[in-house]
Amino acid sequence: MKAKTPRTHSPSVKIRQTQMLIDGRFCDGVEGKTFATINPATEEKIADIAEGGEKDIDLAVKAARKAFAEGSAWRKLAARERGRLLFAWADLIEKNLEELAALETLDNGKPITASRTGDVPAAAAVLRYYGGWADKIHGQTISIPGPYFTYTKREPVGVCGQIIPWNYPMDMAAWKVAPALAAGCTVVLKPAEQTPLTALRMGELAMEAGFPPGVLNIVPGYGPTAGAALVKHPQVDKIAFTGEHKTAQIIMREAADSLKRLTFELGGKSPNIVFADADMDEAVEGACGAIFSNAGQNCCAGSRAFVQEGVYDEFVDRLAQRTAKRKLGDPFDPATEQGPQIDRAQFDKILKYINLGRQEGARCVTGGERAFDRGYFVKPTVFGNVQDKMAIASDEIFGPVVSVLRFKDLDEVVGRANNTFYGLAAAVWTRDIGKAHAIADRVQAGTVWVNCYNVVDTAAPFGGFKMSGMGRELGEKGLENYTETKTVTVHLPA
């Protein structure tokens, strides 16, 4: 019999906004539909949210187009003023940190400590970072033969449709919206149906900060309806999507006729490589955080731990001991390290993979089952004796499940680490700087960490090789997604 779910002591969280934001005002959907957002720790309804469809997306896109192209257009607003508004928005997010952290934890299930010290401050930091970039998006002067003056301009792409996932709702919204607005684009944001609350509250704060109507529109809804309508809309110039590669493939097909600009940040099966000469304490702690952070619901999670054969057994034992000590429970308890999975579908998928791992012959060292009788809690799980072809070693589970694989030497582990259609992230643990640089050079991944994991900063580009994505987010590179380069050549008469 499973233990009862710990009593939740969530604070009284006021749900300020459940309507969609279109053209500067909050409203119900055209058809009046709603959907429920669920607390994953209790399986109870939090609130009913306005459900957007094709007609609502059309209204939002037209509002964004008007704000971009007409009157005192956003694209023509002084760049420094766009930056000032992003700074003001960041200030309001920090001012309302406790409320936003509680909303994020209520809707997503992540521990309140993570929301309070990680997600909310990080979202504000992204807005502030790109606020600083707004008046620094420059072109070049280019010397060409003849009596000509040639220069380039970087102009905003236009109306941007942005579709974000549920694992880091506030941060993913900030990653998408901030560079787009800084560059002079306007936005229609579709948050994940599982976690709309913080996006809507962020939209309310954006209006309080003074953003003009239509610059930021937020339409909650489902992928096959609201998301598809956004992708297909002829007045949308660009789509930015974070989620599964299979959905990105659908988006590419749907966007083919209009040749919309596309950027994708997709999944991963990231290799976390531990050499025998590594600091074992650091490597075990790092591997634990790499896979179990955010309940394993992390696109760059270190779900394949490759451990050199001389220390393999010790590593598995120590990782299992550390994993068994993780505090799983009420996400509003500051001591909780791991909350529930996001919903029933994800919960069932993870347990299915755990059972499949056992069937294929892997050894479940710890965890491997539901934690409580209510809520979507899965115990953090460590599998040993894993082979590369097993489903748990090849498929993205997106849950708290790590496969520990044995390897002999550097050449072997590089080949096996790269033997996947993913390429988002990787890590290496070693005291040998030569090995570290060799792994960083040869592993096919957009980010490689050396003796650390999950170090993601606003200033550093993030994205994937192969089927883990197209383009980069964060840093100066993130602005490239939202600008077009125009070349101007002027004849200079003698």
Q: What does this molecule look like?
A:
- The chain has 494 residues and is α/β, with parallel strands linked by helices.
- Helix content is 37%, strand content 20%.
- The protein has 15 helices and 20 strands.
- It has a 7-stranded mixed sheet, with helices on both faces. The chain has a 6-stranded mixed sheet with strand order 9-8-7-10-11-19, sandwiched between helices. Strands 5-6-20 form a 3-stranded antiparallel sheet, with no helix packed on it.
- α2 runs antiparallel to α5.
- The longest helix has 22 residues.
- It is globular, with a radius of gyration of 23 Å.
- It starts with 19 loop residues before the first strand and ends with a strand.
- 52% of the residues are buried.
- The model has no long low-confidence stretch (mean pLDDT 96).
List keywords for this structure.
7-stranded mixed β-sheet; alpha/beta; 20 strands; 6-stranded mixed β-sheet; 494 residues; 15 helices
Write the topology of this structure.
Blueprint: E1 20-22, E2 25-27, E3 34-39, E4 44-50, H1 54-69, H2 79-95, H3 97-108, H4 112-133, E5 141-142, E6 148-156, E7 159-163, H5 169-183, E8 186-190, H6 197-209, E9 216-218, H7 223-232, E10 238-242, H8 245-255, E11 261-265, E12 271-274, H9 280-292, E13 304-308, H10 312-324, H11 344-359, E14 363-366, E15 381-384, H12 391-394, E16 401-407, H13 410-417, E17 425-429, H14 433-442, E18 447-450, E19 469-470, H15 477-480, E20 483-491
Parallel strand pairs: 7-8, 7-10, 8-9, 10-11, 12-13, 12-17, 13-16, 15-16, 17-18
Antiparallel strand pairs: 1-2, 3-4, 5-6, 6-20, 11-19, 14-15
